[in-house]
Amino acid sequence: MSVAPSFRRAYSGRRVLITGGLGFIGSSLARRLVGLGARVTIVDSLIPEYGGNRRNLAGLGRRVNVHIADVRDWPRLPQLVKGQHYLFNLAGQTSHMDSMTDPQTDLDINCRAQLAILEACRVHNPGIRIVFASTRQIYGRPDYLPVDEHHPLRPVDVNGINKIAGESFHLLYARVHGIPATALRLTNTIGPGMRVKDARQTFVGIWIRSLVEGRPFEVWGGAQRRDFTYVDDAVEAFLLAASHPAAVGEVYNLGGPPPVTLQRLAELLVEINRGGRFTVREFPADRRKIDIGDFYADDRRIRRRLGWRPKVDLRTMLARTLAYYRRELKNYV
């Protein structure tokens, strides 16, 4: 039996809440769920630094119910979670540097607000199925490669520490309170709708913006190896995790095509763009302190247990993303 019909059975007519739903991954998930017949509600603060963009839902109109709200506004949470069948919890502060210069805000969003969301679910909707967007950043500098789910958690910045707490709250509430929750540890996710205004989500956004605008970009270090997941493949993982009973209480890495060095990634982007320039330079001192070096994930666990497979190769994901921003850049800067 194919995956698509099972997704339709799981989500058609169901009420789905997506926190951070005007952001890159959340909006892509919303589009897919609308196509599956779900009744989608989005919560997003639209704070400029955090990636939400109404353009990400262009064309959906009234098929999505949008609440402009901050997950730090705890009194609003019970009403939002009541009656929902699924919660895809993607609200978060993603900038590693911002977490070091403003750690209290990172703590409020990635830790305290996550606990408040779970408490609202425990009291008002304990049967809600939750998938939490965690991150590979919680591993820190790898002891070995590829990094599997048993690797020590040793983050190099405040963001990673708070994301561990947010993930741990979800798993604790699954074990102790019976709330069916799963955590997905995302690697570098790229695709149409990603933040290109700055590097708060990923450095690749700045590279792509520079290429489209005809400006050179910088590659820091260059020898570090990274893996990348296309946004549609990440969405597939979220849908699988929420609809598969075996995923409750579990953690899974996401990966993608074989890893590449950052210099090779830059060369590939220039090649696909049919032009462009970049320079390789040493890491700035503040960035070097929190760089994790080489990282790529071992995603065999989710492949084996849920049947997830990334389908989009690196060249294709870069080409699609570049093509999107050639058309849409004015709506994202």
Please, could you describe this protein's structure?
- By secondary structure, this protein is α/β, with parallel strands linked by helices.
- It has one domain: Rossmann fold.
- 41% of the residues lie in helices and 16% in strands.
- The protein contains twelve helices and 13 strands.
- The chain has helices at 3-11, 24-35, 77-81, 96-101, 103-124, 158-177, 203-212, 231-243, 262-273, 285-288, 300-306, 314-328, and strands at residues 15-19, 39-44, 64-68, 86-89, 129-135, 181-186, 188-190, 217-220, 225-226, 228-230, 251-253, 260-261, 278-281.
- The strands form four sheets. A seven-stranded parallel β-sheet has the order 3-2-1-4-5-6-11, with helices on both faces. The chain has a two-stranded parallel ribbon with strand order 7-10.
- Helix 6 (158-177) links the parallel strand 5 (129-135) and strand 6 (181-186).
- Helix 2 crosses helix 8 (231-243), helix 5 packs parallel to helix 6 (158-177) and helix 9 crosses helix 12 (314-328).
- The radius of gyration is 19 Å and the shape is globular.
What attributes characterize this protein structure?
7-stranded parallel sheet; two-stranded parallel ribbon; globular; alpha/beta; Rossmann fold; 333 residues
